[in-house]
Design goal:
The protein is globular, with a radius of gyration of 16 Å. The longest helix is centred in the N-terminal third of the chain and has 20 residues. Helices cover about 30% and strands about 30% of the residues. It is α/β, with parallel strands linked by helices and about 210 residues long. It has one domain: Vaccinia Virus protein VP39 (Rossmann fold). The protein has a seven-stranded mixed beta sheet, sandwiched between helices. Strands 1-2 form a two-stranded antiparallel sheet.
Length: about 210
């Protein structure tokens, strides 16, 4: 069975690649490897998630320059690193279960000169974030890990948001975005589709209306 990006396989052969990519108007240099999600380029869902989040991030930066952001399931780091680079005062936490992805995220944070601004740690979902609360949680959940994992990424976010915090997640319609929206509507006071883009739904939930 092929290695999955949400698993750890230290025996997996390396095939490192480095490419340039622009996110949130920031030019990034990103190194990837076998065994991580979307290693050839930043996937379209992640780009759509960040594009849809841009206005919200700008508002946060204006009203709360030291805002806290969680990149949940960070992979090799494009979401968290681009936010840290675009908003130098933000405090960005990046978590993943994949040790190879985390090592790459550390490397990419250093390459893009945001190491001092980001905290990168191993975590199965929110398990290592017991007492932390965030103004914003962004996630492109690992759909191949199964519905239970995706549902936990979405539903448990409420426990890790500030009172006015928001969660944004990207899912394709065929990956269960409509049912994910129903779950969010059950768990959060406010939940909606923020944006649709080529079959991708950007779902938005918040603790207060």
């Amino acid at each position: 069975m092929a290695n999955q990006y949400f698993e750890n396989d230290p025996e997996l052969d390396h095939q490192r690649e480095t490419f340039d990519f622009t996110l949130l108007g920031q030019s990034l240099q990103l190194t990837t490897d076998r065994g991580v999600f979307s290693r050839a380029r930043v996937d379209y869902g992640t780009v759509a998630l960040l594009t849809s989040s841009a206005e919200l991030l700008q508002t946060l930066a204006q009203t709360h320059p030291n805002f806290t952001c969680l990149d949940l399931g960070c992979g090799y780091g494009p979401v968290g690193i681009s936010i840290a680079k675009a908003y130098p005062q933000a405090q960005v936490t990046m978590v993943d279960v994949n040790q190879r992805a985390l090592a790459l995220a550390e490397e990419n944070a250093q390459a893009n000169q945001v190491s001092a601004q980001v905290q990168i740690k191993a975590s199965q979902g929110y398990s290592a974030l017991t007492d932390q609360r965030f103004d914003l949680i962004l996630t492109n959940p690992p759909v191949r890990a199964g519905k239970k994992v995706v549902s936990e990424f979405l539903a448990l976010g409420q426990e890790h948001l500030q009172p006015t915090g928001q969660l944004l997640a990207v899912l394709q319609k065929k990956q269960g975005a409509p049912s994910a929206l129903k779950l969010l509507q059950q768990k959060y006071p406010v939940a909606q589709v923020r944006h649709r883009d080529k079959g991708y739904y950007i779902l938005q939930a918040q603790n207060q209306d």
